[in-house]
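In this supplementary section we document a worked example of the pipeline. Step one takes a protein sequence of length 62 as its only input; no multiple sequence alignment statistics are reported here. Step two produces a three-dimensional model, which step three serialises into structure tokens for compact storage. The input and output of this example are shown verbatim.
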Amino acid sequence: MENPRRTYPLRQWPTDSRFSYALVRDVANVLTAHGYPLLADSGDDHVELGQILLRFLYDPTT
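The serialised model returned by step three reads:
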């Protein structure tokens, strides 16, 4: 049963073209602008942030 007080998760994944590396990079830049450290150059931080965003934005059961 859906919670009427929640907007997320969405049901559009994997066809939602709005989710991209640029989105993950923009979120990382917002975090940095708010005083959090830069993401690691290795890319592992970017991958993990992307996975967290996917879990927040989209319902993995659809």
